[in-house]
Specification:
two-stranded antiparallel ribbon; mainly alpha; 4 strands
Length: 311
């Protein structure tokens, strides 16, 4: 059973199912990405790696996706542990949910923006922008001058290496995570709206940073006794619909990035999904009333309707 941590009130059944679907779907997709080897000859990622054979686009893209799934797998281990018993209760609070969702969104959005480029020249340009952003953040974190200088030199070496193709202005780092998130929402086949993502990201950032306003926007308040004139005891309960919205958005961004990576690497996602689903089935404690149709789908070699590779 899934409950809110403060009062033990059960999460609505449809929201609980949504939580579990994100958890199990994340495990399957993570397994698929981890099972994908180096990009195949002739694939989009092999082509772009050959165009820029230094810091490989394929390696960085996979890193962003795996980073997103590290956060979603922590969510999965909390909401739907592999092993559980009938009396086990999973307690939820607001801020960890939004914090993990925000981290997954930010990680996956980098891969989506990178892999949505038109052609290898633009893909590498975005790749180099992200690398320069990473170097700049690494430099800021350095405590000693020598470390900072090494970071500056890495940036200078990168710019010199590609000076015949790109100007320094063309390789300016993104203007923060919100900028990347908005650009990641541009693909027409990704059902995420930039305005909605900004709203969710700001709420998740506020929740993660301990701001007060998420208490007002993302929770329900039950007013209790007046303990001082004009001051009342209050009980707050997270809005589970808002929690579903943010974790599903993080899942959608991460899943889109993962599938795009697999296709661009020359892999067959349907062929990878069968083993991943069976792996999940083998590692999960099943309830006695588990739906036989769901179990059959998980045990299949390929998802129904995903086509036959021989066809």
């Amino acid at each position: 059973m899934i409950e809110f941590v403060e009062i033990g009130e059960p999460v609505p059944a449809d929201h609980s199912r949504a939580f579990v679907q994100v958890a199990q779907g994340s495990r399957i997709m993570w397994h698929m990405v981890r099972s994908c080897g180096d990009p195949e000859a002739g694939s989009n990622l092999r082509t772009v790696d050959e165009f820029y054979p230094f810091e490989k686009v394929s390696v960085r893209a996979k890193h962003y996706i795996e980073a997103a799934y590290e956060h979603l797998l922590m969510w999965a281990d909390h909401v739907a542990p592999f092993k559980f018993h009938d009396e086990q209760v999973v307690n939820f609070s607001l801020r960890p949910t939004f914090t993990l969702a925000r981290a997954a969104l930010e990680s996956a959005a980098q891969a989506v923006w990178l892999l949505s480029a038109e052609g290898p020249v633009e893909c590498v340009r975005r790749h180099l922008c992200l690398i320069r952003w990473d170097i700049a953040e690494h430099r800021k974190s350095a405590a000693d001058a020598a470390h900072k200088e090494r970071c500056r030199q890495r940036d200078a070496d990168l710019l010199a290496r590609v000076a015949s193709r790109y100007t320094e202005d063309e390789l300016a780092p993104p203007n923060g995570y919100l900028d990347v998130l908005k650009h990641a929402c541009l693909p027409v086949d990704l059902a995420l709206n930039a305005a909605d993502i900004e709203r969710l990201w700001r709420a998740a950032s506020g929740a993660a940073h301990g701001k007060y306003w998420p208490n007002l926007e993302l929770q329900r308040t039950v007013v209790g006794v007046e303990f001082e004139p004009g001051h009342f005891r209050a009980l707050t309960l997270p809005d589970s619909a808002a929690m579903v919205e943010v974790i599903e958005a993080a899942n959608a961004m991460s899943q889109y990035a993962a599938l795009k990576y697999l296709v661009f690497a020359g892999a067959d996602p349907a062929a990878l999904m069968g083993p991943a689903s069976r792996w999940l089935l083998e590692h999960t404690t099943l309830s006695e009333d588990a739906d036989p149709e769901v179990l059959a789908r998980l045990a299949a070699d390929r998802p129904e309707g995903w086509g036959d590779p021989a066809g």
